[in-house]
Structures are given as structure tokens and as C-alpha cells.
Amino acid sequence: MTPAAGARLTLETPVTYLKGVGRRRAELLKRLNIFTARDLLFHIPHRYEDASTVQQIAKLRVGDDATVIGKVISKGILPTRKGLRVFQAVVQDASGLIEVGWPGQPWLDRQINQDDVLLLSGPVRFFHGRQFAPREWVNLGKDADGTSGGRVLSVYPATEGMSVKVIRGLIEAHLDVLLPQVEEYLPAWMLTDAGVPSLPVALAAVHRPVSLASALAGRNRLAYEELLFVHILHRRARQLAAEKRDGIAYVNKRELTSRFREALPFQLTKAQVRCVREIVADMCSDSRMHRLLQGDVGAGKTVVAVFAALLAMENGYQVAIMAPTELLAEQHARTLDKLLAPLGIIPVLITGSRSAKERKLAATRLESGEPLIAVGTHALVADGTKFAKLGLAIIDEQHRFGVDQRRILSEARGAAIKPDVLLMSATPIPRSLALTMYGDLGVSVLDERPPGREPVTTALRPESAHGKVFAFVNRQIDAGRQAYVVYPLVEESEKVQLKAATTAFEELTSGALKGRRVALLHGKMPADEKDAVMRSFRDGSLDVLVATTVIEVGIDVPNATVMLIEHPERFGLSQLHQMRGRVGRGAGLESYCILLGDVGEEAMNRLQVFLDSEDGFEIAREDLRLRGMGDLFGERQSGVPTFRVADPIKDEELSEVARVGAERILAEDPELKRPAHKMMQQMLVRGYGRALEMFRVG
Known about the structure:
This protein is an alpha/beta fold. Strands 11-12-10-13-14-9-15 form a 7-stranded parallel β-sheet, sandwiched between helices. It has a 6-stranded parallel β-sheet with strand order 16-21-20-17-19-18, with helices on both faces. Strands 2-3-4-6-5 form a 5-stranded mixed barrel. Helix 11 (about 355-370) links the parallel strand 11 (about 350) and strand 12. Helix 7 (about 255-265) packs antiparallel against helix 9 (about 300-315).
């Protein structure tokens, strides 16, 4: 069924009925989530080519990296002696012509036709004379005007069978009809505060940019809206949760907490004091706490968590601390043993490997309802574990648990009063990003290193220094110290010729580390074997641990003073920082992180950030800028808001303006029911399914 002849094209018109689309192209557009005319209008370019920087073909020299625009005057597919098929075209502008080659891409013969105008960016190489090797290219069609300078070209996300040229043509063909139907629905004060244009102006600017600056301004309006809506959703979620979530209103009795502070052999940092106050304020309110405590390796998260635990205990409640592995649970238990010894408090350890007698004794104490701290793994949420009076659930390295495991612990198995929840993470991310990604939680940040923690000497050494580096490792072992040697792969790969941990282990034990006590640790080993190796290293039975990144978040080995990382360019900066945090934990022991390998200029520029800084937040910021967010968020990724236009790192300042705007508008109109906000509410519902629940709409 098609619209009646002469029917008006609206934003809700199915894309099938747009001129130039039809059923086949409509199916292709669905891959890009384009179902209606509105979706097409909001299909935003992901980059721009500034044709004002176009060079004349006649002036190109071998070695140049350039952008040119020219018409295809001939084309063809050339086979090589090795069986590779090369698509070649000769492109001409007003000044001259040049050969362009795409090795191994013969299918381009169906996408590029004679007389098509191409925009090409890339290096000029010597191949029987000059040849252009396009890194990126855009087919402008048979638009002769495309050869003129000063034009900014929109480059859209595309899909196989639906080229950038076709998408640009469809948008251009319908823009004049669709743009007048767009209304601005954000309050004028928001646009002023953010310094962005109205929505119709923004859409015109992104699709028909007169300059890169105008395109960026239009893009910022769309990015601001995404960030604003995410902050509104987070803020509203917290408001509704506070309304619905009856919590325990703790009283700060300053009994156990004051005794603990007096017994500490060190002063708390200002960041620790601030975080403790934020957590205490949450716990003493009548709303249930749901807070994320994040801090760099060694920032003192455990001490802050103990204050929260003691506040719960002095109010007569039980505390559960859940860690992702038995080794980490045991480490927490030992740390708490030492910290709480002056108070006479001994934590209860609950793991799968405890004896039946130990498990029975622990179960009796939990069911008695006595105030205590239980430390364990997922065994804390097993069927046989029941807390009589759980008041606080602390989940360490929260991203390593499934959502269900966290939920079961935080719901306390159907108890009338749900416990407060404190999530902890050693993955440092900038506070502004944390508020964007985890805005439904309270966020406390430990951004200060406790005094007394020795810096780790960090250096990059070339592959030619291999012998000297291992001679240094051996001197450290002779001095009674231990070392990690980390590799990026477990097994050799034909495609990626790097030393793998398994191969390196064999080479080292018969070569540079012959006679030393060396063990191998990697992710493909059974869990019990991994635990046994880590215990041996922790207890000093091993000199060297050859490993993959399974030691990234690992146990405390104060005697380990060397972290040697081969092929460092294969790791993210945050990974490297986490691994460096495994050393430098022994009081008074100088520690070292050595990157070993020959790296290119690009990798060197990236690694320099790591070499120059021990600030996990600075390193994470750069890592996010270079590699994106996916690498940092683990299982939480499924709950992290996604953005089509905004980038929470690059748009950090815009995000902060959006957060303030969200707080202001919800303070004025918590459910966005006012007539002036009605359309904004509708757009929230349209763009975010979660809004249906949060705003009780539909």
C-alpha cells in the first residue's frame, strides 16, 4: 500500500515511500536503523572532508599526503603475477591527471564508473611513476560542481549496497521538505547555556555545511541533546529510586569508626576523607545507598570501605564484601584482619574451597544476626548462604560480576529491608565521564595517592637490550626479589608474529632465567591451576611469573619489584597502568616497570603518556580518547548509555553543561509534565525505551 498521490511527505513517512528509495533500498537502509523520513534526517555525518584543502593533481610529488578531487576518465582491473587483482582508475582535474590504485579490491569496478567525480585522500607513491594510494575516498557521483574548491563534504555512515553517494543524494533530495517540519523542543535557556544553535539550524548545518565550523556547531547541538537526555534519565532514575527505595537510616555513632581512625598507623588523604563523608551521608539518609567508589591502584579504597562497614556494624548490621576470585577474597580477609585487629574484629571468609566445618561455622554466625563482616566470592550468593541482617553489600571489581550476581547480593534474598550497596572499581575514569556513564549511581572518586607509596621507575627499552634487561631481572632475584614477565598472546599466531607466553616460558627457562623458579600463568588454564600458581608466587615459592594479562587485576605481592612487559604496543594504556600497579607495593622497595620491544613512531607517541605519568585518571583519559570506551567498561557495558553523535570524552565540557541543565529542569518539573516540556518528554520516550518506565508514559 502506497500513500495517495500528492500525499504530503512527513517526518513519519516510511522510508520505503521516499522518492528514490523503493523496497530494496528500504531494506538496506534498515541496516542503518533508518525506517522513516525522520530517521533519514537524523542520519548524521560521522566525518567531513574539507575540499578547500584540495591540491592540484599536477603539483603532487611522490611522498606527499594529499587530498584531490577529479573525474574518472578511465578504469579497469589489472591482475598481478601473484594473483592479486588491482582496481585502477585514471583521475583528472583541471591541472592534470594521475593513476589511482586499490590493490585487492576488484569489486570497486562496480561502484566507480567513468565520469564519476572522486574525492581522494592519501599518499602519493612511486609505481611506474606517480600513483595515488587512497586511504579514504568518496564518490561524489557525476556532480561536476564537486571539483570546485571551498566545499565541505558530508561523509555518512554507509552499508554494503548503500554507498555514501546514494545516502547523500537521498538526504539532499528531501532536505527542503523535511527541515521546515522540525521544531525546537529544548528551552531557549538551554541552547544559550550550551552555546548551540536551534535544531532546524543544526540539521541544516550538518547536512549542508558552509564550513567545518558550522558543521561542528550543528553537531554540538545534537551531541548536547544526547548528553542532556542521558543525564535526565540518570537523574530521574535516582529520584524515583529514592522515592521507592526505603533504606536503613544509619546513625553515625562514632563508636567503631572513631576507634578505627585512631588506630590507623597513617593519616587519611583528603580524597579518602571526602569519600568517607559522601558514603556516611548516603548511609545516614533514609534512602538506600547505591554508590560507586572508584580509585587508582593503591588509592586506598579498602580503608574507605572499612569505614562504611564499621558504620553498619555499630548499628547492629552485617556486611558482605564480594570479590571476583578466591585469591582476592583471601587477600581482602588478610588485609581486614590487620586493619581491624585493634578493634578485635575478625572477618568471616566464605569461599567455595572452605571445608564443610568452616562453612557450617560461618553459616551459623550469619544466621545468628550478629554484626560481622563476611568476605567471599560468588559463594556469598550461593543457596546455602543466608544473612540474617545484611545491611551493607560491598562489591569489589564490580565489572567482573554478572548483573544477576550483583542483584542477588544487593537484594538480600527477599529481606524486608534491602542493604545499602557500595560498588568498587580500580579502573580510573575521569569524574565527568563517571557521572555520564554511571549517573544512576552516586560516584565517589579517590583521585589522590596515599603518602608513602613509592613511585615505580618506568622505562622503554629496545629489543636489542633484551640481554641487559634480563641481567637486571636476575640481579633483582639475587637480591631476594620477584618479577613478572608479561606477554600479549598465549600461543603463537602465524598472522601476528609475537612472542607468546607459552613459547617465551620455554625459551626463558632454558635461557635467560635458567635455574630460576619460573611458572607460567595464562587465561586458558583451569581456575584451580591458576590459583595454585598465584599462591606459589604470592608465598615466595617462585622467582618469576611468566603471564598474560590475567595478572592485570591480581593479588598483592609486596616482594615483586619488576614488571617486564614485552610488546607493550599491543596493550591499552589502562592495561599497562593496571599491570604496573602490581609492583611498588612493598614498603621501602624500589620497583620497576620495563617495556621491552621495538615500537613505531605512532605507538611511541601513545606509550609516552604512560612513561611520563603514574596518574591513572590522566592515562585512562588518553586511553579513552585513543581507543574508545568499550575496553574499559567490561560487563557494565550492556548498561552503559550509547551515543550516536556525542563522545563523552571529547565532549566533556558539553556534558557538564548538560548535567547542570538536567538538574535544573528536573528541579522545576520532575516528570516533565508542563506543556513547555511535553515535546521533550515525547522525544525522550522516542529515543530511549527506558524513559517509558522512568516517566510512567505509554
